[in-house]
From TrEMBL:
This is Rho-GAP domain-containing protein. Residues 305-327 are annotated as: Disordered. The gene is ORF107545. CDD domains: C1_MgcRacGAP, RhoGAP_MgcRacGAP. Residues 62-251 form the Rho-GAP domain.
Length: 327
């Protein structure tokens, strides 16, 4: 919705101030403000903002449905933004999601999200802080994404020896989750599959299953006993392993990723990271005696002179010799 600014606000996409009496756009869901020309750069989906600090503290221990927009895809903005940033500049980090970040910075970052401040994650130098923020948010939920009433069914299904039958029943269980849990789980699994495919990270699916098992799968009850924790920890990673084995097509069809940008607005992207130089009007240089592999394009740089100098004629040899030095 459009509004006239009375109290100066900050534009979320560009970070600049929206001054007094200027027109601004404001989201009805998350109350994020922006310039009219920056409207298309807002990240989607958004999360409802907290009215006060006490409300933010209360919401930090709520259900996943407390942090999602009213329309699909129902995924918390914190998870979408953090996952986007990690995929943008964290897929070359060894031990991503395993190496810890600063606890203080993680908590501050999560608090900003819960208060609706929408921090610019590109300004956070340590990508492990962004990873820790995402994990801490999942850890603080009142109920994991795998709900308590379906927990035992997921564990039983993970024990099925037949891979095809296991995946079939696992997909049925995923579809029986609440909408917010299902959308968030689908987005996270695809994100973790992307991380697992990165050789540089050295975090295969088995490692990620151990890291995210306690937060995404959780335990069978809100307050497990010590012996229960010991026996159910292995089951958590087993269920997580089975979820990561489900093909990406299932998760993308479940979520319809066309509605979500996996890269922040304005991020340059070309297939395979290739950047092509402009070609010369004359085409590539290639002579019959020159192998094709040595052919290259001509590109004129700003240092190249517009006109070439004429080659000078070789000077004629002088008829005189230089005089010897006289002391």
């Amino acid at each position: 919705m459009a509004k006239t600014v009375i109290k100066p606000e900050t534009c979320v996409p560009c970070g600049k101030k929206i001054r007094f009496s200027k027109l601004a756009m404001k989201c009805k869901e998350c109350r994020a403000a922006c310039h009219p020309e920056c409207k298309e750069k807002l990240s989607l989906p958004c999360i409802p903002s907290c009215p006060s600090t006490s409300g933010a503290n209360k919401m930090s221990e709520g259900l996943i449905s407390d942090f999602v927009p009213s329309e699909r895809p129902m995924i918390p903005r914190l998870i979408v933004n953090c996952a986007n940033e990690i995929e943008h500049r964290g897929l070359q980090e060894v031990g991503i999601y395993r190496v810890p970040g600063s606890d203080r910075e993680q908590k501050e970052l999560k608090e900003k999200f819960l208060k609706g401040r929408y921090p610019h994650l590109s300004t956070i130098h340590d990508i492990h802080v962004v990873c820790g923020c995402l994990k801490d948010f999942l850890r603080s939920l009142k109920e994991p994404l795998i709900t308590y009433n379906l927990w035992s069914k997921f564990v039983e299904t993970a024990d099925i020896s037949s891979r095809e039958k296991c995946q079939e029943q696992m997909c049925q269980l995923v579809n029986s989750l609440p909408q917010a849990n299902k959308d968030t789980l689908a987005f996270l699994i695809q994100h973790l599959q992307t991380v697992a495919e990165s050789v540089a990270c050295k975090m295969p699916a088995s490692n990620l299953a151990k890291v995210f098992g306690p937060t995404i799968i959780g335990y069978s009850s809100p307050e497990p006993e010590p012996m229960q924790i010991m026996s159910e920890t292995r089951k958590q990673s087993q269920v997580m392993d089975r979820l990561l084995e489900i093909p990406v097509q299932f998760w993308s069809e479940l979520l319809n990723l066309d509605d979500i940008s996996l890269y922040p607005a304005g991020t340059p992207y070309t297939p395979d990271g290739l950047h092509y130089a402009p070609r010369s009007m004359l085409g590539p240089i290639n002579t019959p005696d020159m192998p094709e592999m040595y052919a290259h394009d001509i590109t004129r740089s700003h240092m190249t002179p517009k006109y070439s100098f004429k080659s000078r004629e070789p000077t004629k040899p002088s008829r005189f010799f230089s005089s010897p030095l006289v002391n």
